[in-house]
Amino acid sequence: MPDERLYERIYATVRQIPAGKVATYGQVAHLAGLPGRARQIGYALFRVAPGSEIPWQRVVNARGEISESPHRLGNDDYQRTLLVAEGVIFNQQGQIDLAVYRWQPASAPPSAESE
Fold it and tell me: Which phi-psi region, left, alpha or beta, contains residue 17 (left: φ > 0; alpha: ψ -120 to 50)?
């Protein structure tokens, strides 16, 4: 069973990402005090139900792509739909320009860009 306090730290960080912006798994890990644990962010967000108040859709991989999973049962397309509705643009390769759309919180150190 996952540590609920740890997951709440992750969710609290993700809740700060504004509409129209994205963060990488690694960036969320760093900001949540879990550097190097990007996969843990993915595990935590996988548990979030679509329609939750946690904006899980705003977290993408370090390449600016949606990390697809056969276990999500169609949520990969749903994630893209939600981001596009927020004004995020994908290129023809399915990538988001992180130089444009990456969330940069005022208190984040420059190294928060790693995955």
Answer: beta
Amino acid identity of residue 86, one-letter, is E
For 90, the 3-state DSSP assignment is strand
Contact between residue 105 and residue 16 where contact means Cβ atoms under 8 Å apart: yes
pLDDT, tens digit (0-9, with 9 covering 90-100), for 52-103: 999 999 999 999 999 877 665 556 688 999 999 999 999 999 999 999 999 9
pLDDT tens per residue across span 11-45: 999 999 999 999 999 999 999 999 999 999 999 99
Chain mean position to CA 19: 12
- Domain span at 29: 4-104
* CA-based torsion, 45, 46, 48, 53: positive or negative: positive
Q: What is the CATH number of the domain that holds 15?
A: 1.10.10.10
Q: Which helix (H) or strand (E) holds 84?
A: helix 75-85
Q: What pTM does this model have? A: 0.86
Domain contains 40 = yes
